[in-house]
Amino acid sequence: MSEAKLKELGIELPEAPIPAGNYIPAVKTGNLLFISGQIPLENGKVAYTGKVSDDNLETAQKSAKSCAINILAQIKREAGSLDKVTKIVRLSGFVNSVPEFTQHPKVINPASDLMFEVFGEKGKHARIALGAGSLPLDSMTEIDAIVELSE
Fold first, then answer.
1. What is the CATH number of the domain that holds 61?
2. CA 87/CA 124 separation, integer angstroms
3. Which of 22, 84, 97, 105 could form a disulfide with 79 if both were Cys (CB 3.0 to 4.6 A apart)?
4. In Å, what is the CA distance from 32 to each residue of 18, 79, 120?
């Protein structure tokens, strides 16, 4: 059902991005899947870079959605199917912002919206959205996830 919803939304999942550091992209323990932070990699390159401000909020929102798509790709790689998701438990969103920027939740909203669109009620989750002085590879956003899977 979730995979069909992606097609309906016109979203094709990319190959799950490979980590840029000394860690693995996901850890499964029990029925929980912890997805490492995903940046807006598209076709092997960071698609959205630089500091977020009120002037580029819409671009930053696209960056967050790109991160969410990469989270979905990691879930599919690890679980074999998005249909095994029973709950998106939590998203943690980081925004590479100028110090005076205060709209971090608005930046991360598109990632949360995508989880709800794809998974319905199972996509509703707890979340944090906060600013950071910098992020890996100068990406605008980075988001990680905790996901519950069926057995």
1. 3.30.1330.40
2. 8
3. 84
4. 21, 11, 19
Tally the residues of the chain. 151
Write out pLDDT tens, residues 43-86: 999 999 999 999 999 999 999 999 999 999 999 999 999 999 99
User: Within a domain: residue 18?
Assistant: no
Comparing C-alpha atoms, which of 79, 92, 91 is closest to residue 124?
91
Query: Which domain covers residue 73, as residue numbers?
Result: 32-149
pTM confidence score: 0.96
Report yes or no on 6 lying in a domain.
no
- The one-letter amino acid code at 54 reads D
In a domain, 47, yes or no: yes
Q: How far is CA 73 from the centre of its chain?
A: 10
Domain count, the chain: 1
d(CA 28, CA 32): 6
Q: Could you tell me if residue 45 is inside a domain?
A: yes
